[in-house]
Design a protein that fits this description.
The complex is a heterodimer.
Chain A: H1 2-29, H2 34-42, H3 48-62, H4 68-80, H5 95-128, H6 132-147, H7 150-164, H8 184-221, H9 224-231, H10 236-272, H11 278-287, H12 291-319, H13 321-331
Helix pairs in contact in A: 1-12, 5-8, 5-10, 5-12, 6-8, 7-8, 7-10, 8-10, 10-11, 10-12, 11-12, 12-13
Chain B: E1 3-14, E2 17-29, E3 34-38, H1 45-51, E4 59-68, E5 71-72, H2 78-81, E6 89-92, H3 106-116, H4 121-134, H5 151-162, E7 169-173, H6 181-196, E8 202-206, H7 210-216, E9 219-224, E10 227-233, H8 234-239, H9 244-251, E11 302-305, E12 308-310, H10 313-319
Parallel strand pairs in B: 3-8, 3-9, 6-7, 7-8
Antiparallel strand pairs in B: 1-2, 1-4, 4-5, 9-10, 10-12, 11-12
Helix pairs in contact in B: 6-7
The chains are: A mainly alpha, B alpha/beta.
Domain ABC transmembrane type-1 (chain A): 103-312
Subcellular location (chain A): Cell membrane; Membrane
Protein name (chain A): Peptide ABC transporter permease
Chain lengths: 332, 320
């Protein structure tokens, strides 16, 4: 057990290191540079030598005048001190502050949509596997849903429910007329704005999980332990419960595998709905070549996906006795 | 008479038509009798065994009746059959290695299974433990997951589960096929032990391995191409078989002490007919060295000596 966990943690640390390195590299591969961008935005002076002076000053300030390897080392040093740098786009706010404002919206959007879609999709898929007629209807629909890009469904929902029916707002996390407070009016407004982005994430993931579960259940009901129980006259509900318990295992692994995709999907959905989470922020950061903000956003995503995966690894130990046995075998 | 089967006919539904896997099976098994059911692959022995307990599509009930302890079994009605399964008729499946839910502890699974059949687990538990002792399994297995048992242990565990409610008829389907010879012998002896202790009243042991049947079976039923060929006490089948197919089958078995470098082991030339459109008359006709005109008619399955049933026109002629 201990050996298993140590190994897992080592693998996660290695993944973290590689992912963060790529995260550091990617913005630097983009054409253009953040300081010129920043100066262009404020358009301080028309004098070329004045601009050059300001450019040198800011390049030194952000440490961008150093050789790349030095920048890379400095980046890790700063990271261990909890310093993600200062945003050039929202200068002079530290990246940490910017992220702190955005992260709650992400958590609020991602956690319910991922978990609810997983839970509901699995239960619905298991239910659909029982009835031929329901299955004939649900299966094609689920395939269409799971193949739909997140933002496209987001746009459709925004158009239909927001513009045609006018039931839901299509942008922002709350009305411009309100300020964030712990009041019922504000919370209701928040939920009202949250619903469409949530629904577009939920519906697509729901389709995927429902298909997966439906296929797994049909497979498990054909499995030999199911046939044995049938031969011994066990009632359907017991056989179905066993099938469900077995079929849920690959779905848990599936959740770990799909987490990255879902988070990426959430990013574009946020852009569609101008929802002020990491996705929306990331788009702005990329458009403004804000190295530090891009790094910060990706760092948050990397951490989120890795932690969630680790939690799923732990859950798996609890639900599948065979993993536990494997661990005993290893240490023996 | 524990089991009485009359005219049982079961087909398989396929896209190309019905496969005549079992036709007009008529036989009886006495109380305490272990009947071996042998024949080559695809001759319908598993179909016959399964039709007595799990007659599900693509198997299709065509006709015939089955009585167990003088009570008719509704084998064509899976819902009604549920009441008899496990309590009266039970099955040790071919796939015993995978017959248990991999993510439940074995004891827990047995408990859930029993409770779903309205049997009190606590009441059965002492008997269950006695039987574990009998098959030399430690009581700890109830706290284990199936993956923690070896193949032979799983096989014995499934034998214990299947016979737990003392069924009148236990169908053991190819249960020795996946085991090594030493374990085969132990399993075979356990079957006999189960009968001797009256855990089960009578048994059908399905196998293609006649030497196993020689050890356990009181009588042997030989099938060929979906029909019954011969049923007789084990000694008679081995020493004085009457059906030409049985004779050729027995003569194909290797014998101890014979060097097969000197004497080639003979097989039966030809292949069994396809059951999608079986030939009329005796189904062994094409491969039978003794076939004559009469064999174009289907031979009945008749008792030619005490407890010795044969379906062969030649045999009837010899007796006439």
């Amino acid at each position: 057990m201990r050996r298993y966990l140590t190994r897992k943690i080592l693998i996660y640390l290695l993944t973290f290191f590689l992912a963060v390195t790529i995260d550091w590299l990617i913005p630097r591969f983009m054409p253009g540079d953040p300081i010129r961008n920043m100066l262009a935005r404020v358009s301080v002076a028309s004098n070329a030598s004045a601009i050059q002076m300001m450019y040198d000053y800011y390049a030194r300030l952000f440490g961008l005048d150093l050789p790349l390897w030095q920048q890379y080392l400095n980046f890790w040093k700063a990271l261990f001190q909890g310093n993600l740098g200062i945003s050039t786009y929202l200068f002079p706010t530290p990246v940490i502050e910017v992220l702190k404002r955005a992260v709650p919206y992400d958590v609020f959007l991602l956690v319910p949509s991922i978990l609810l879609a997983w839970y509901a999709g699995n239960n619905f898929g298991a239910f659909a596997a029982r009835s031929k007629r329901l299955d004939n209807f649900v299966l094609p629909l689920s395939y269409v849903l799971t193949a739909t890009p997140y933002m496209w469904l987001g746009i459709l929902l925004a158009w239909f429910f927001g513009i045609v029916l006018g039931l839901f707002p299509i942008a922002g996390a709350y009305s411009f007329s309100l300020r964030p407070t712990w009041s019922w009016t504000f919370l209701l407004d928040l939920l009202h704005h949250w619903f469409l982005p949530f629904a577009s994430l939920f519906i697509i993931d729901f389709g995927g999980w429902a298909i997966g579960m439906r296929n797994m259940i049909i497979y498990e009901l054909e499995a030999e332990y199911s046939r044995y129980l049938t031969a011994l006259g066990a009632p359907q509900h017991l056989i179905r419960r066993y099938a469900f318990n077995n079929a849920i295992l690959p779905q848990i692994t599936g959740l770990a595998l799909k987490l990255g995709v879902i988070v990426a999907g959430a990013l574009v959905t946020e852009v569609v709905f101008s929802y002020p989470g990491i996705g929306y922020l990331l788009l702005a950061a990329i458009q403004n070549q804000d190295y530090f903000l891009i790094q910060g956003c990706f760092l948050f995503i990397i951490l989120g996906v890795l932690i969630a995966n680790f939690v799923i690894d732990l859950v798996y130990i609890v639900v599948d006795p065979r993993t536990r046995r494997g661990m005993v075998g290893e240490s023996a | 008479m524990a089991l009485k089967v009359e005219n049982l006919t079961v087909y398989y539904q396929t896209l190309r038509g019905d496969v005549h896997a079992l036709e007009h099976a008529t036989f009886q098994i006495a109380d305490g009798e272990i009947m071996g059911l042998a024949g080559e692959s695809g001759c319908g022995k598993t179909t016959l065994g399964h039709s007595l307990i799990v007659l599900f599509p693509p198997m299709k009930y065509i006709g015939g009746q089955v009585w167990l302890d003088n009570e008719e079994l509704p084998i064509w009605d899976s819902e009604r059959m549920n009441a008899y399964r496990f309590h009266k008729v039970s099955l040790i499946p071919q796939y015993a290695m995978n017959a248990m839910n991999p993510i439940r502890k074995i004891g827990k699974m047995i408990q859930e299974l029993l409770e779903s059949r309205k049997v009190d687990y606590k009441e059965v538990l002492p008997e269950l433990k006695r039987r574990l002792d009998l098959v030399a399994l430690p009581h700890d297995v109830l706290q284990m997951y199936p993956i923690e048992l070896s193949g032979g242990m799983k096989q014995r565990m499934v034998m214990v589960i299947s016979s737990l409610l003392n069924p009148s008829l236990l169908i053991a389907d190819e249960i020795t096929s996946a085991l090594d010879v030493a374990t085969q012998k132990a399993v075979a002896e356990m079957l006999v032990e189960f009968r001797d202790r009256q855990f089960v009243k009578s048994m059908i042991v399905i196998t293609h391995d006649i030497s196993i049947l020689y050890q356990v079976a009181d009588s042997i039923l030989i099938m060929y191409a979906g029909v019954l060929a011969e049923k007789a006490p084990t000694q008679s089948i081995i020493e004085s078989p009457r059906h030409p197919y049985t004779r050729l089958l027995i003569s194909s078995l290797p014998e101890v002490g014979v060097r097969f470098a000197d004497k080639r082991l003979s097989g039966i030339p030809g292949n069994p007919p396809l059951l999608l459109d079986p030939p009329i008359g005796c189904r062994f006709r094409d491969r039978c060295p003794l076939a004559f005109e009469r064999c174009l008619e289907e031979p009945p399955f008749i008792e030619v000596a005490k407890d010795h049933y044969v379906a062969c026109w030649r045999e009837f002629e010899n007796h006439a």
